[in-house]
Specification:
By secondary structure, the chain is mostly helical. It is built from 17 helices and two strands. It has a two-stranded antiparallel ribbon with strand order 1-2.
Length: 447
């Protein structure tokens, strides 16, 4: 049986798999809304929540078939540093989770949920990379699958702010037992935090970091006026919705992402210098305004999430600080980790009290130890290096810049635990690096 060239393959089954990938990209921003509504109507909400994992399993089986029949792609992929690091991370995660379960540090439900959350986005990365190396479909339509749903998300967020009642999401099953319908700053109804169709304000903000980065990068290269108007409209809507999510981590991450996009997009040294001066001036001006208006209620609540009239027993700042300190102490006591599901959002399903460090990297160290964390960081670094090498490609530029911002977000939240953000970003990374997997000897050469 003859194998057609990797990128030029028109195999019908491959096209179907490509459309499934695009379907996942398109539905992910509405995952929380759809599954919460379905669970409230039919029960068994966790069954509805794993729709994407089921599709990923189907895609994974097909990807294994592709690797079996395509020895060239198999050799290139299996010989890459990134893939070897991923296998090592998988091994460490499984061994530490088994050890944690046997030591009664994590129960089966939390372990399963933790394994899914920690590994699914890496699995999706390779699945999309393999499929995209066999068809041009994903390269052609990724922007539509990313920015089309984003317009719906931002318009719905706008409606939440100016039209819909604050408890509108209760009509879709949102409650204290699923996802809170209302999020506030410091328990004050005057400061309602937007969450749109995502599972909360912080996940919404992190998602919009990716969207804002994409709109700016694509707008700078768009020549069609209608596309420019669409991208500019989406950018403005995203800024509005992100601001009223009051997600400070997303604000900071977005500044970093857009700064990287601007710096890499400008080729003139003088323009880059002006950009750096402008960003520095803007940051200093912002800090000055915050200092001058530090006694203003709006600034206190939006920037500091607390004021002298605080209604919370413990502020979010104190929660984050205590969570990070407790997480670091936990890593010091258990440097090898206690298993997936022993920390982070998944630990809420454990028999023990949840461990929320408010830092994704500390969470990983708590779960799979210092060696596991180092391996994951290495994966991120090598992926970033590959994206940077391809920065002339718009998608690679978007992903490299947004990874810088999302890394900052992960320092003060559990960003990659959100399935919408993690699957979207890593799936798109699979598309961006698929050409390299198809045409180069290795993703990154091993020494």
């Amino acid at each position: 049986m003859s194998i057609k060239p990797l990128v030029k393959s028109t195999d019908r089954l491959t096209e179907y798999m490509g459309w499934i990938c695009l379907f996942v990209f398109t539905v992910l921003p509405f995952h929380a809304l759809i599954t919460t509504w379905a669970g409230s109507v039919y029960g068994h909400i966790d069954v509805f929540r794993i729709w994407k994992e089921i599709l990923i399993c189907i895609l994974f089986l097909y990807s294994m078939y592709v690797l079996i029949i395509d020895k060239g792609l198999q050799k290139r992929l299996l010989g890459s540093v990134i893939f070897r690091l991923t296998l090592l991370y998988l091994l460490i995660t499984l061994l530490r989770t088994i050890a944690g379960y046997r030591a009664d540090l994590v129960n089966s439900e939390a372990a399963i949920y933790g394994l899914l959350a920690n590994l699914r986005y890496l699995a999706f990365f390779y699945v999309v990379l393999i499929i995209s190396s066999k068809t041009k479909l994903l390269k052609k339509y990724w922007a539509y699958a990313l920015l089309g749903p984003a317009m719906i998300v931002t318009v719905f967020g706008l409606m939440q702010k100016i039209v819909l009642p604050n408890d509108f999401l209760t009509n879709f099953g949102y409650s204290k037992d699923t996802i809170p319908a209302i999020h506030t700053v410091d328990s004050k109804e005057a400061y309602i935090r937007l969450q749109s169709t995502l599972r909360g304000p912080n996940p919404l903000g992190a998602y919009l970091t990716l969207i804002l980065t994409a709109t700016i990068a694509l707008w700078s290269k768009a020549r069609n006026p209608s596309k420019q108007i669409y991208l500019l409209s989406l950018f403005c809507l995203s800024i509005f919705v992100m601001f009223f999510s009051f997600s400070r981590s997303a604000w900071l991450g977005t500044v970093v992402s857009l700064g990287v996009v601007g710096f890499l997009s400008l080729t003139n040294k003088r323009s880059r210098t002006l950009l750096l001066y402008g960003v520095s001036f803007g940051m200093l001006s912002f800090l000055g305004l915050v200092y001058i208006g530090q006694n203003n209620d709006f600034i206190q609540n939006t920037i500091f999430h607390s004021d002298e009239k605080s209604r919370s027993a413990v502020s979010s700042n104190e929660n984050r600080q205590s969570g990070i300190v407790a997480g670091l102490k936990d890593v010091y006591r258990h440097p090898l980790g206690q298993g997936a599901g022993s920390a982070g959002p998944a630990s809420a399903r454990n028999d023990r009290p949840a461990k929320i460090s408010e830092n994704y990297y500390i969470q990983i160290a708590q779960e799979v130890g210092i060696f596991g964390l180092i391996t994951l960081i290495a994966i991120n670094i090598f992926v970033a290096m590959n994206l940077y090498k391809k920065r002339n490609d718009t998608l690679a530029l978007i992903l490299f810049a947004s990874l810088c911002g999302i890394t900052v977000i992960n320092m003060v939240s559990h960003g990659w635990m959100d399935d919408t953000l993690s699957l979207l970003w890593w799936g798109l990374a699979g598309i961006a690096l698929s050409e390299r997997a198809a045409h180069k000897p290795r993703i990154i050469k091993s020494k």
